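Memo to structure team: turn this sequence into structure tokens by end of day. - J.P.
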Amino acid sequence: MTNLREIFAHNLKEKRQNCGFSQAKLAEMVSVSTHHIATIETARNYPTLDLVERMANALDIEIYELFINPLSPPEEMERLYQVAAKNIDQLICESMERYCQATTKNITDEVINAIKQALSDERKK
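Reply from structure team:
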């Protein structure tokens, strides 16, 4: 599903079937023809806002439910994987950067201390 019309058509059909209504029953409840419901469910026609509201009321759902993009489980899993992978990559990079900074600072401090010690030892001679 790529566009709003297809999303709406899919959701309308699914919600109608979940209520146990035929296209004819829903058409009767919202005062349109069965053909009009069929063309909406196949995304060939798009309803007016007034009709959307009547259909939502007939199906006993909130209007927005007809417009939610229902990702299939594999698509949703892929989306979650991409988000998790991005977050994990970011965490690894940040951790490695902090580690390198701390290590570099420790090495630098150790080198400076060793030089100071060597100079101090040389002066004592």
